[in-house]
Specification:
The complex is a heterodimer. Chain A is α+β, with helices and mostly antiparallel strands. Chain A is about 10% helix and about 15% strand. Helix content of chain B is about 35%, strand content about 15%. Classes of the chains: A alpha+beta, B alpha/beta. Chains A and B meet through helix 2 of A and helix 9 and helix 14 of B.
Amino acid sequence: MSFPTFSIAEQRSSVPVRIDEELCIADKGCTVCVDVCPLDVLAIDLSKGKAFMAFDECWYCMPCEKDCPTGAVHVDIPYLLR
Amino acid sequence: MNTIEREVDVLVIGGGTAGPMAAVKAKQANPALKVLLLEKAHVKRSGAISMGMDGLNNAVVPGFATPEQYVREITAANDGIVNQKTILAYAQNSYAMIEELDRWGVKFEKDETGDYAMRKVHHMGTYVLPMPEGHDIKKVLYRQLKKNRVEITNRLVATRLIVGEDGRIAGTFAFDCRTGDFHVVRAKSVVLACGAAGRLGLPASGYLFGTYENPTNAGDGYSMAYHAGAELSGIECFQINPLIKDYNGPACAYVTGPFGGYTTNSRGERFIECDYWSGQMMLEFQRELEGGNGPVFLKLDHLAEETISTIETILHTNERPSRGRFHAGRGTDYRERMVEMHISEIGLCSGHSASGVWVDENAATTVPGLFSAGDMACVPHNYMLGAFVYGHFAGVSAARHAQEHPHANVSSAQVDAERQRVWAPLLRESGLPPNQVEYKLRRMVNDYLQPPKVTRKMEIGLERFEAIRGDLDRLHARNPHELMRAMEVHAIRDCAEMAARASLYRTESRWGLYHARVDYPERNDAEWKVHVQLHKNAAGEMACFKRALEPYVIAMDQQEQAAYQKLRISTEAVPA
């Protein structure tokens, strides 16, 4: 039996950007938080029509929270730094 | 995935601070030119000032300072290693830029008579101009880009500059971090304004993106300039900043100092005379931190309530608005507790120290048609206002170059080779995850390059960076976003190697902690009062050489020269 050269294990991470799905209007076509993120870590979940944090690479700089038209985005300090 | 080609006259890479200014000024210089601003993130919120800025650190305002005084201050602060002509060009144009930004709608603090409310933070002169409402500076820039009809593309990651067959700059290669499309942008002149190499050292927390600099600024610009054959300078003069422990913002003596805040040791005593960031200041900071009197703190708990609320408003709404949230989580109230500080990971950034691409007083690099401005261009201690002033120079110079030159010829082999290199991580079926390679690389940077610098450690570091070069060919990206991280690892590795080689080359100590060499503890002006330049030599190898200082245009007396070497507060008894 041979082993694959590269095995990948997923690692869990608590993400700092939280979206209030009640308030998020991505289903109406809004992409403000996704547009302004310098690290491009946010995305829209097309099945739900809501924004979410797709990559745990946050600089906690907060344009996503400040620019969100409905106040649906909240940025926490990442747990490792809290 | 497609290949998309386009042709412009002037290409500006980087839409943060210097880049938008360069694009606007190129277009104003000649509205007939096709000017494209290419941005890795989104121009509305990109770069070092994505959330605004709370002040100008180096404003040369008539009545408070002269350009000549400023040149003397920065010559002393950077231990004599400056091309004074570049600093003078900044200083002479500093005030005109403040006035222009003011007209554009940037809000600076003014006194009751309408004059700029200047504050003293530097050792000798008065150069700090607060911007308590500086949070919308990016919006102001964006309006100017629209007004001047600059074309913008977002989410394109530049990877390598295109060099024409005659050695002139010919454009850039880039890819779209959402679709993976490969872009070939041909241009007659290029302005590189990609910011600092901010993802070089690893923050003590181990969190890859907890850097002082915007982590989008991964050193791409330094790497691209190097591969295009440009000279870089002062790479060994690292950027190391005094920050809040575990938080990536400055404790901010620049903001708090004028209100009465100051840096102390654990006993609440001052130990430095001046909070302006210089290598010597960082060395005293590190000595206090490690010497039994640490940790180091920012002291505000002696101030009046209204002063503290003003400080909170400035610090918690500009530049780093998550700061209040961090303090709340740790139970730190400025009224009751001093703020624990620490030193940052290393980076390369001429905005704060001196490492960058070599430019003259017109923002020209050593590659014909290539200009550079902002944190990545070597004009020491240039900060945000310097980025604007040199962005202006770069835009005007690039416009002139584009008018005078046709597009350079480019070999199709160059295009094919770069497309293959960029797409490789996506086309591999499996391989190393970019975040793991980056973590290891940056941990090695900490282990082997964090000052005080040790020769043997830096040599081992070079061996490790060489081994990681081999790993680059095994990087695997599952999507275009991961591809962006994979290509950033290439740039970070280049910067790590540059940092090690330039540091090994300068066999003396200079700039306090920035280049403190354990094996060569003394400053040696006889041999090393020169620039250390780094470039890709004719054999394609990374090499360093000395470049003599240009004769000073502003004479320095001995007392001024030494001003920044005496920052520790004397503890000897002073007769009454």
